[in-house]
Amino acid sequence: MFQTYDEALSWIHGRLRLGIKPGLKRMEWMMERLNHPEQKIKTIHIGGTNGKGSTLTFLRCILEEAGYEVGTFTSPFFEHFNERISVNGKPITDAEMLELANVILPLADELDHSELGGPTEFEVITAMALYYFAKINPVDVALFEVGLGGRFDSTNIIHPLLSIITSIGLDHTNILGDTYEKIAAEKAGIIKNGTAILTAVKQDEAMEVIAAKAMESKAPLYQLGSEFSISGNHSLMRGEEFNFSSIFQELPQIQISMLGKHQTENAALAIMAAQLLKQFYALLIDEPHILQGLKRAYWPGRLELILEEPTIIMDGAHNEEGIEALVHELKARYNDKQIQILFTALSDKKLDKMIQQLDAVADSITFTEFAYPRASQAQFLYELSCSQNKHKAKDWKQYLRTTIPTLKENEILVITGSLYFLSEVKPFLVNLIK
Question: Are 259 and 303 in contact (CB under 8 A)?
């Protein structure tokens, strides 16, 4: 038994040594021993390459506005580990995390000595979340974000009211496959028999896979651009405005506070999910709940404006598609500014193509590094760049200390790359610019 939160957290993080172990056998074993908490919760399952966290946040805020208590399971955390299990946006307490760890510890110990093998960090925290929302703090609805892929992800133990696949991109190709079709097949693994599936996937070849899986599963399919759509998007100083139309309802001039056209697609998924929950599950969600929820939704590290003067932005663009969206927004919003970029990423990404896109938009680009498994080295990233104005700074804290005071009115600093990196930078940066 753990006596302190720090002991419990150290044990959880220690499970990272087991790496990624796809499959549901260990989860099924733990759920049976815990008397199946996953069967006692109303859940919504959200997968996809990019946009999972934002879509989850939009939907959470809509449901909260309608008066529901909403649990969320997300990854990675941004500033505090407890964020991964939250209720109405508030992380669970250290005492609750300690209690959960002590519930799962004996199960993990038993699995460690079984043929199935010990549970990974992600499996442990998933089991903790399911137990928490079912036994310790029952919620009206729990939103679960897929960790990796879908078919063999530990969250796929749930049987949700709705499933959502936000997008498909060529990420984690060493595990999920190197084509849109292969990755779509893994993501489509969250589709359950008779359970509606919503998606904003654009690639025809990926949609064919998802549509085929939906048909096989007799799962109603709602696709952005077909059963629901967005139009009239234009950027605001602190957000976006767009029109929404679906087979149920039209909503004109919706405003969100997150920056980026891609966020309107994530918001549209959340709106459609809310409408389906109202139509088929009798949740009392009205138009004001949707509009107010979308307006106040906030998700850190996604085109987040940290400071206006000088302009500092953080964006967790950690794969090709994320970088593409970031570059699009920088060109659309800040084409009149000199763009300085600070970048680092994990080594299992398609770094050459990511850096190529950043090189094209950056007036100056600096590569850094941070202490994390699989993190890239600044020198390696530097060598991949073809920029005429590239630099490397192994100590990102010192870089920020010296760079921010020198930023001019016509310059913008963009800190981007791994979300794990941004989670370290955010508290340091906020303290630095006080």
Answer: yes
Query: Rounded distance, CA 277 to CA 366, Å?
Result: 46
Q: Which helix (H) or strand (E) holds 47?
A: strand 43-47
Domains of the chain: 5-296 (3.40.1190.10), 304-432 (3.90.190.20)
For residue 136 the two structure tokens come to 């310790």
Contact criterion met (CB below 8 Å) for 166 and 199: yes
Question: How do 239-246 and 250-256 pair as beta strands?
Answer: antiparallel
Q: Looking at 308-353, which runs of residues are DSSP E strands? A: 311-315, 338-344
Tens digits of residue pLDDT in 219-254:
999 999 999 999 999 988 889 999 999 999 999 999
User: Which tokens is 64 given?
Assistant: 């909260």
* Pairwise CA distance, residues 85 & 27, whole Å: 17
Q: Which residues of the chain have pLDDT under 70?
A: 173-174
Please give the model's pTM, rounded to 2 decimal places. Answer: 0.92
User: In this predicted model, what pLDDT tens digit does every residue of 248-272 receive, in sequence order?
Assistant: 999 999 999 999 999 999 999 999 9
Amino acid 318: pLDDT: 85
Predicted confidence at residue 173, as pLDDT, reads 66
CA distance 402 to 93: 36
Which residue reads 């193509």 in tokens?
Answer: 353
- Three-state secondary structure call for residue 10: helix
Pair of tokens at residue 418: 């791994």
Sheet hosting strand 162-165, strand order edge to edge: 90-91, 85-87, 70-73, 141-145, 43-47, 162-165, 196-199, 221-223
Shortest CA distance to 188 belongs to which of 157, 158, 161, 166?
A: 166
DSSP, residue by residue, 215-268? HHTT--EEEBTTTEEEEEEEEETTEEEEEEEESS-EEEEEEESS-SHHHHHHHH
**Upstream peptide bond of 119 is cis (omega within 30 degrees of 0):** no
User: What residues contact 167, with CB distance under 8 A and at least 6 apart?
Assistant: 48, 49, 50, 51, 200, 201, 202, 265, 321
Percent of the residues in the chain that have a pLDDT greater than 90, as a whole number: 85
Distances (CA, A) of 362 to 334, 346, 352, 385, 386: 11, 20, 15, 11, 11
Using an 8 Å Cβ cutoff, are 365 and 387 in contact? Answer: yes
- CA–CA gap between residue 25 and residue 135 (Å, rounded): 22
